């Protein structure tokens, strides 16, 4: 593909932002369209920004069990996260509304905790994988006295026991990934947007001029897009990076990608609370808990942020919102408190502020046991959020050309773990567009694929009668949650 070619990217979440940044760096003429007014909302969920990437924080980690391809990708990303922090601090690149005191990455570590009595296989594989790659003593097991001493030397003892289990006579079981921490998600997106613009990428935001209405075709070749304001935009390559909306826009993704909901709760810690210091990022890592324990587990969380929000999420059940589309097929369709009843000409149901009872129960029992101080303080859930992931059946991303449609690519399928690659995933997308270095294991894993005889990691397309459909599960009204103490509903 000629460098002079014009490329359209649809979607300015992390896939779109990163792709635009790297395309522009390599000299392509790139225009990104997004239906959301990100210059106004600044990627803030509280300002109505409605995307997986628009959030207060996201976990960053290197350790990936035996998945060396993601471990290497994380290592590459984390190097750049540190560079981005340095670039911000130097005052060289400061997006509007941010200051050189801001950070986009907080390296407070990520601990993977378990209720087992011994380290689970996955955690052991994380230590082995990182040691094998030469990242010695970056993974510290809470059950290993030598690792505990190393943590103490690095002033990380509180991070090794973030829920102070030892004080209750319990042994924490987990591995602290000291290379990890968290991205300050909204600021990181703003930083990437600013950098992409600085190297020449153009961004068209808004519900009309920025919203993809349809693709343009010449025969089987996609020649660009038509936006909701009726304008046609030509491109030699169109890259769809519309997050959880992508499988709704592109029916060819049936069975490969699906929008699924995670349940997120924000609890405001008062500045005067005893927990303020303890849950701050200086003392508290990001954490996951019983991630591979099915519907009874799948928790993750963060230190309280500068506004006092302590965020905890549940992913043990991946809920869906199957809606029948014009072709008669049901597809899970993202719906949130910010959704309109109809979007892009497609019905999506009503907006949603309710919270799955199951998610609440699992979060509640975790907090009761691991952070009983919250109950003592009678702290309330300040906000709940249903946030939409784009899952593939095998949890690998999807970055490839769309079969049978020349000039069309997808960069999606984040499957709950793509944010950390904001600095570098676009470089890989551009390589793939250029058919360069295609034999790398990650690139192979991200190819367009169909489910064979293997057991899928995620069972997709279970439809409106399925057990995970939001219409079939019990929910709490948000008002109920706000009135009750977090731990006493
Ligand atoms: C609750 C939650 C927690 C997560 N936690 C982590 C974590 O801790 N660590 C981690 O690494 N990853 C995490 N992830 C995964 C990560 O956030 C996602 O993989 C990533 O943000 C997806 O980015 P995206 O660009 O694919 O989609 P999105 O961020 O959803 O962006 C898609 C964009 O497309 C736009 N769009 C949609 N339709 C159209 C249209 N018709 N026209 C124009 N624009 C359109 C949308 O407005 C949106 O801006 C989490 C995800 C969720 C949902």
From TrEMBL:
InterPro entries: FAD-dep_OxRdtase, FAD/NAD-bd_sf, MTOX. SUPFAM superfamilies: FAD-linked reductases, C-terminal domain, FAD/NAD(P)-binding domain. The keyword Zinc-finger does not apply. It comes from the Eukaryota. Keywords: FAD, Flavoprotein, Oxidoreductase. GO terms for molecular function: flavin adenine dinucleotide binding; sarcosine oxidase activity. The keyword Flavoprotein applies. Residues 7-431 form the FAD dependent oxidoreductase domain. Its cofactor is FAD. Belongs to the MSOX/MTOX family. PANTHER family: FAD DEPENDENT OXIDOREDUCTASE DOMAIN-CONTAINING PROTEIN (PTHR10961:SF15), PEROXISOMAL SARCOSINE OXIDASE (PTHR10961). This is FAD dependent oxidoreductase domain-containing protein.
């Amino acid at each position: 593909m000629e460098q002079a070619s014009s490329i359209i990217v649809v979607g300015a979440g992390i896939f779109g932002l990163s792709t635009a940044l790297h395309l522009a760096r390599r000299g392509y003429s790139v225009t990104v369209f997004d239906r959301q007014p990100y210059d106004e909302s600044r990627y803030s969920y509280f300002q109505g920004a409605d995307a997986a990437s628009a959030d207060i924080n996201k976990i960053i980690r290197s350790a990936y069990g035996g998945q060396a391809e993601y471990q290497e990708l994380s290592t590459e990303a984390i190097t750049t996260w540190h560079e981005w922090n340095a670039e911000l601090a130097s005052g060289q690149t400061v997006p509007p509304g941010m200051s050189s005191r801001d950070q986009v990455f907080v390296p407070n570590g990520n601990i993977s905790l378990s209720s087992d009595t011994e380290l689970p296989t996955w955690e052991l594989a994380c230590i082995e994988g990182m040691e094998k790659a030469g990242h010695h003593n970056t993974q510290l097991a809470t059950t290993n006295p030598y690792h505990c001493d190393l943590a103490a030397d690095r002033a990380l003892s509180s991070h090794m026991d973030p829920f102070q289990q030892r004080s209750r006579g319990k042994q924490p079981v987990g591995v602290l990934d000291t290379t990890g921490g968290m991205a300050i998600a909204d600021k990181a997106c703003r930083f990437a947007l600013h950098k992409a613009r600085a190297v020449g990428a153009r961004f068209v935001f808004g519900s009309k001029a920025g919203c993809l209405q349809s693709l343009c075709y010449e025969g089987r070749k996609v020649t660009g897009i038509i936006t909701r304001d009726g304008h046609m935009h030509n491109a030699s390559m169109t890259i769809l990076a519309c997050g959880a909306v992508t499988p709704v826009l592109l029916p060819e993704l049936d069975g490969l990608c699906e929008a699924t909901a995670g349940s997120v709760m924000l609890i405001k810690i008062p500045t005067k609370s005893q927990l303020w210091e303890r849950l701050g990022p200086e003392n508290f890592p990001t954490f996951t808990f019983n991630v591979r324990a099915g519907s009874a587990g799948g928790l993750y969380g963060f230190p309280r942020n500068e506004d006092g929000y302590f965020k905890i999420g549940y992913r043990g059940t991946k809920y869906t919102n199957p809606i029948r589309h014009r072709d008669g097929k049901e597809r899970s369709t993202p719906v949130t408190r910010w959704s309109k009843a109809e979007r892009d000409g497609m019905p999506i149901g009503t907006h949603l502020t309710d919270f799955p009872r199951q998610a609440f129960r699992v979060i509640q029992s975790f907090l009761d046991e691991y952070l009983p101080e919250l109950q003592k303080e009678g702290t309330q859930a300040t906000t709940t959020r249903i946030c939409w992931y784009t899952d593939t059946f095998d949890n690998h991303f999807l970055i490839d050309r769309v079969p049978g449609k020349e000039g069309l690519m997808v960069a999606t399928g984040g499957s709950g773990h793509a944010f950390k690659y904001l600095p570098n995933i676009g470089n890989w997308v551009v390589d793939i567009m250029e058919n360069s270095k295609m034999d790398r294991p990650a690139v192979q894993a991200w190819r367009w694929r169909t489910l064979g005889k293997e057991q899928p990691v995620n069972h997709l397309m279970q439809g409106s009668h399925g057990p995970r459909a939001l219409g079939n599960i019990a929910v709490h009204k948000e008002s109920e949650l706000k009135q009750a103490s977090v731990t006493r509903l």
